[in-house]
Amino acid sequence: MEVKELGHLVLYVRDLERSRHFYRDVLGWNEIGELGGGAAVFGTGRTHHELLLIEVGPEAAPIPAGRRVGLYHFGLKIGTTDDELRDALRRLADAGVEVVGTADHAVTHSLYITDPDGNEIELYIDVQPELWREDPTAMIAPVRPLRI
Predict the structure, then answer these.
(1) Domains 7-58 and 72-148 share a fold
(2) Model confidence pLDDT, tens digit, residues 106-145
(3) For residues 7 and 47, is the Cβ–Cβ distance under 8 A?
(4) Which CATH class for the 72-148 domain?
(5) Where along the chain do its domains lie?
């Protein structure tokens, strides 16, 4: 077996409407529709869907703080230029979304945010993709402070 690509992401959320607003209105995902009244499906057109949100209610256990096993963050490519990243930074500020970190990974420039349930998301732009395509080890360069 060989994995060809990461297909989709499924997240449990406490409040479907709150998360729907965040992923659709703040991050700009295209909402495809509702599934069974307790789930929302989103996509970019790259495949049948890339994101599924399933409501589990307000009493669901939160993501534990600190070091833990499981998902650390997921990355969403939002463009290829620092201008696009600066625009995203402005839009996040306008929406009241706190940026919890930034990084220059050499192959990407990244902003880190959290969704309403505490899932960390990396919003990034590719920096000279030909570098990592020609030399995949370029992605293990030391992390530097982001200057955009």
Answers:
(1) yes
(2) 999 999 999 999 999 999 999 988 888 899 898 899 999 9
(3) yes
(4) alpha beta
(5) 7-58, 72-148
The DSSP result for 9-41, as a single string, is EEEEES-HHHHHHIIIIIS-PEEEEEETTTEEE
> What pTM was computed for the model?
0.94
pLDDT digits (tens, 9 = 90+) for 47-71: 999 999 999 999 999 999 999 999 9
Which residue, among 123, 77, 70, 75, has the nearest Cα to 97 in the 3D structure?
123
Residue range 7-58, CATH number? 3.10.180.10
Contact 76/11 with Cβ under 8 angstroms?
no
Measure the CA–CA gap between 60 and 71, rounded to whole angstroms.
17
Tokens standing for 142? 């030391």
Q: State which amino acid sits at residue 72.
A: Y
* Residue where the block lists tokens 């209105």: 25
